Amino acid sequence: MVISHSVNLQPYNTFGVSAVAAHFANIQKREELEEAITFAEVEGLPTLVLAGGSNILFVHDFPGVILHIGNSGIRWLGGFPGSTQRVRIAAGENWHSFTKLCLDKRLYGLENLALIPGTVGAAPIQNIGAYGVELADFFVELSVYDRQSRSWEVMNKSQCDFAYRDSVFKKAGKGRYIVFDVTLELSGIWKPNLNYAALGNYLGGGKPDSKMVFDAVCAIRRSKLPDPSRLGNAGSFFKNPIISDEKFTVLSKQMPDIPRFDIEEKGLVKIPAAWLLDRLGWKGGSRGAASVHRNHALVLVNPGGATGEDILLLAQEMSSSVLENFGIALEPEVQII
Ligand code: EPU
Questions:
Q1: Domain boundary at 222, 253, 288, which?
Q2: Does residue 298's CB lie within 6 angstroms of at least one atom of ligand 1?
Q3: 131 C-beta closer than 6 A to ligand 1
Q4: Are 204 and 295 members of one domain?
Q5: Cβ atoms of residues 244 and 265 within 8 Å
Q6: Do residues 80 and 334 touch, judged by C-beta distance below 8 A?
Q7: N or C: fewer beta carbons within 10 Å in the chain?
Q8: CA R_g for the chain
């Protein structure tokens, strides 16, 4: 394992902000992860797992050891031909490339999750989701290193405790579990999921095949969300708030066109943070070197030269305005370091 020192993390975060990590371990194998953790413990340093860097904002330099999970490999585990197929994917594999591979192999389910930036290992942390589908729908198990018990474990779906953009990995506290591979089960039988209005409308009815859905998801995402390789961003900066039915009734009297998404929990409803922010005029807004994307009020961007602090200040101003005007506290979706 190679540990580098004083590494600028600018190429390792999709916001493209500058922050220096004191130490940076490039990890391919299980033993290398254990070695890097031992190094951090001996030196008394904090650690941070970093993979694609697509959901993180560095506000300051990082004084500890970055654990950069870069393992690779995809193992098709078999299943029931024509019905389901299990596959184990190394955490360091790119998520979008994997969804494309499934499409080519005629294994279905992940089309709606195409083009989400980041790695396979990061997908379960926040239970990535888009267009009516989330990772949990296909999840079987994953391998993790548990720093508390200092052992390698396999965790099944209920142990992962998935929820909207949430999982045990977020709840368990910083860096307890480090995901090393993920096992999913995909279907060999095509059944489109067009429940998300924007996707159904884009396809305009009929019986789309998997490639049509995959291409539609990519086209919608490209039209709304900036490509991080061209314009620094981390997708949605805040989660969509979940509020009570009563609160929703009050808001809808004030703003009759406020959208709502029904969720499983009774008495609660999810509303789009983007809509609230848009209403307050945030789309295309800016503060200093950081701005809000011109096509989407939930996406903060670094047009070049913004620091993590600039982006954080803008985000704080946005959430304060939502709190003041609607009495709703927005929660960041992005991890702030
Ligand atoms: N809207 C506005 N103004 C805007 C943008 C959107 O009023 O500037 C309205 C839209 O008209 C729509 C609603 O807000 O009624 C929702 O917008 P959108 O379909 O773009 O979805 P979102 O709720 O903003 C969520 C996820 C995205 C995911 C999309 C599609 C969260 C926090 N975000 O966004 O995930 O791609 O749905 O499923 O749940 C991410 O997590 O980084 C991410 C991009």
A1: 222
A2: yes
A3: yes
A4: no
A5: no
A6: no
A7: N
A8: 20
Contacts of 134 (CB under 8 A, 6+ apart): 113, 127, 128, 162, 164
**Average pLDDT, 10 consecutive residues per value, the chain (337 residues):** 93 98 97 97 96 96 97 90 89 98 96 97 96 97 96 98 94 88 96 94 93 98 94 97 97 95 92 98 95 97 97 98 97 96
Contact 331, 238 (CB under 8 A): yes
Q: What is the pTM of this model?
A: 0.94
Tokens describing residue 229: 């390789």
Domain limits for position 42: 3-69
- Residue from 165, 185, 210, 221 carrying the catalytic annotation: 165
Q: Please check whether residues 199 and 313 belong to one and the same domain.
A: no
Cα 158 to Cα 37, 136, 141, 171: the distances in Å are 27, 10, 9, 14
Which residue has 């291409």 as its token pair?
215
Q: Is 333 in the pocket of ligand 1 (CB under 6 A)?
A: yes
Question: Rounded to 5 degrees, what angle do the CA atoms 44, 180, 8 make?
Answer: 50
The number of the ligand 1 atom at minimal distance from the alpha carbon of 297 is: 8
Determine what percent of the chain falls in helix, strand and coil, rounding each to the nearest 5. 30, 30, 40
Tell me if residue 222 is catalytic.
no
Do 138 and 261 share a domain, yes or no? no
Distance of alpha carbon 66 from alpha carbon 159, whole angstroms: 26
